[in-house]
Amino acid sequence: MIRLVAFLGNYGQEYELTRHNVAWQFASQLPFYGRFSWQQKFRGDYASVETENLAQWFAETGVLSKKDGSAPAVPSGAPDKIFFLKPLTYMNLSGESVGELARFFKIEPSEILVVHDELELPIGTVSLKWSGGLGGHNGLRSMRSVFGTQDFWRLRFGLTKPVGRDIADYVLSNFTPDERIILAQEFSQTNEMLAKFLLSTDENQKRILQSWSKRKIVEAEKK
C-alpha cells in the first residue's frame, strides 16, 4: 500500500503555473491540502498524516465517504501514516529528496506514488501506472538513479507533446486559460481516485489501475 505521495515540480514563483509543475498544482487544490502541517526537511516540504485522520478528511471535504456521510474504512494492514512530499531540489534532482525521506522512514519504492507531468499523453488525460519506462522525464530518471529501480507507482497528467517547439521551453511555459479549464475538471475527478487508491488493498489497487490506466477526462479541443 502507498506510504508516500511525492509531487514533482520546480521550486520558485516563476515556475508555479508552468506545465512542468502540474503535480504541485494538483496538490494545492486537494480539498484537504490546507490541513497539512508542512515541515521543511529531507530537501523538501513534507507532511505526515495519520491514515485514520486522512480518511476522516476525505469524508469531511466530500472527496470520499460512505452513503451515510461517514469516513471510509481504513483497510486492515494499512500504514499508520501517509507522507506527502514536494521536493525542493528542482525537478532534475527530485529523487534525492524522495530518497532521503524514504530512507529515514524505511519506505520501499513499491510504496511510493510519484505524481508528475507526462508529454506522451494528451492534455485532459490522467494515467495511473505501475513501473515501466521513464519517457525522458528527468524527475523519474532521478528517482531511478537514487533507488536503483523503476518499480514505483506513477500518477501522470498529460501535457500533449508539442510539434515544432522546443520541449524545455514548452514545459516551462504556463498553461493557457483553456487548458486551465481542462485541468480543473481533471483535478476534480482525480481527487476521488487518489483517495480510493490511498485507502485500497492490493486487490482494489488492481481494479483502480485498470480503470485509470489512461483515462480521458475531457477533450482538449476548444472551438
Describe this structure in words.
- The protein has 223 residues and is an alpha/beta fold.
- 34% of the residues lie in helices and 19% in strands.
- The protein has 7 helices and 8 strands, in the order E-H-E-E-H-E-H-E-E-H-E-H-H-H-E.
- The protein has helices at residues 22-28, 51-60, 94-105, 138-147, 167-171, 177-198, 202-211; strands spanning 4-7, 39-41, 44-50, 81-87, 112-118, 125-130, 153-158, 215-216.
- An 8-stranded mixed beta sheet has the order 2-3-4-1-5-7-6-8, with helices on both faces.
- Helix 3 packs parallel to helix 4.
- The mean pLDDT is 94.
Helix percentage range? 25-40%
**What is the overall number of helices?**
7
* Order of strands across the main sheet: 2-3-4-1-5-7-6-8
Net shape: globular
How much is the radius of gyration in Å? 17 Å
* Structural class by sheet pairing and helices: alpha/beta
What order do the helices and strands come in, and which of them pair?
Blueprint: E1 4-7, H1 22-28, E2 39-41, E3 44-50, H2 51-60, E4 81-87, H3 94-105, E5 112-118, E6 125-130, H4 138-147, E7 153-158, H5 167-171, H6 177-198, H7 202-211, E8 215-216
Parallel strand pairs: 1-4, 1-5, 5-7
Antiparallel strand pairs: 2-3, 3-4, 6-7, 6-8
